[in-house]
User: What shape does this take?
Amino acid sequence: MLDAERLIETALAGGGRACLTCSFQAEDVAVLHLLRKQRPEIPVLFLETTYHFPEVLEYRDRLTAEWGLNVFNLQAQPPTEYPEHMAACCHQRKVEPLMEGLAGYELWFTGLRRVQSPTRANLQPREQHRFPTGLTLDKVSPLFDWQDNEVFAYLAANDIPLLPLYEQGYTSIGCAPCTAKPQPGEHARSGRWGGNKLECG
Assistant: This one.
């Protein structure tokens, strides 16, 4: 935890407008809690796809009220019909709003971790991230090397309630139509997008 706190402190000391993208899953909430110790008013960017589980929205609203969060709901511009192709839907409802929402920032905090998927295995704690649009941000992932048990232990130690869907058997939570509970022995993100991909973008 000390390394994560030090990483956050060093990044914030460098200046630049900072934000956190937050899905309100366990790791994002842990990063949010750590960030608020140093910058309580930090903007929290939430991708409002309009297809979230009701439990996610209720949990977001609960923490927003209890913690006094500065939440910005990033939502796709119309038309918002559900595209037939999964990749097109993710691009419209996640990637495009994210690009627009991040455009005003220089420092981007995430809850990404190496153990989450093979595509994140080489994640660095701090790196320059360049998007296809040309947008380049200083991306900071304070929990880059945390294991699942460390994340949940941190929340428990700080009396932070869990998103209720974890108790129902979900391990990685996205839009309701594209999220299922993993089968025993499967990877935590195997229930995302029917196992057809690992990332939204």
Remarks:
- The first helix runs from residue 2 to 13.
- The helical segments are 2-13, 26-38, 54-67, 86-102, 148-157.
- The chain has a mean pLDDT of 89.
